[in-house]
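ok here's the first one, seq then struct tokens
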Amino acid sequence: MFDVRSLIAAVLLSSFQAKPVYAQFTQKQERLLNAIIQVESNGRDDAVGDNGNAIGCLQIWKVYWIDATEFSGIGGEYQDCFKREYAKGIFDAYMKRYAREAWTDPALFNPEKVARIHNGGPRGHEKKATQDCWRRVNAILSRSAHEPLTLPAPLGGRARSAYEPLTLPPPLGAGPGVPMSPLRSRPPWGRGQECL
């Protein structure tokens, strides 16, 4: 009788095991992560994009995953990026490697730098190709808290309201730009990940 009770207790306990926690986030970090997830995958954990090169809610590329796991020792498999908590842990490790102060120091927290590095690699915050991603992330942040964190003017352009619709630049020789949803995962020309 005791063996049966032990077996039942073991089965019940194993079914209630907690999910592994890869990182703890501040309220600002969590808010930024949620906005990036909306932009990257529209909140879908099963998303696959960039011609199969990016997976999960944060659209993590394999080279990004390798970078993060080598630095942090998180472990796991690339396919684990389909699990939200794991993907967030990979994001955290990557930011601690390439945007440590901007991501972890409350006094120096810089959501634009973090979002652009996520989108464009270690020097993504310096790339023009990542500005649009930041505008879309900031638009979501603005709607969720009614206070934009920042919304810089594009290079050679004017500052825009976080609520102003975004447009893609027109093809050469074409008319006005193409309207773009703030939730679109990325422009048709890619993520600006060439440095990864």
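and now the second one, same deal
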Amino acid sequence: MPTNFMEELVAKWYEYKGYFVKRNVRPHPKELDVVAFNPNVKGMPQLVHVEATGQTFDKREKEKFNEETDKLCRKLFKGFGTIPQSVHKQAVVMKKRKTKTAIFLSSICRISSATFSRIRT
């Protein structure tokens, strides 16, 4: 499945921050949007699973955050060094307003317009 704008933005952000990124992982009917791994975040490895969605984060997306997908996330980066047992789970929701599109990145980052321009290109 092609990457949507939100998935692309999230993937680019993690690549910019030095993570190895896998997109659109399809182990079963539930596709994982973005899985990112950085072997050295403040001296510790970090593994992140991000679901990017449109207006709402509904039951279908919530079901993707489970132990089965955590195991898959860890397998994706096998051979990259020490893989943490815990997977940080994050949701990115785009909410449209009348005048402009506001992007909420749940505990990922706060993007200024300058950073947003750099990531988009």
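notes on #2: Residues 5-114 form a domain with the Trna Endonuclease; Chain: A, domain 1 fold (CATH 3.40.1350.10). Confidence is low (pLDDT under 50) at residues 98-121.
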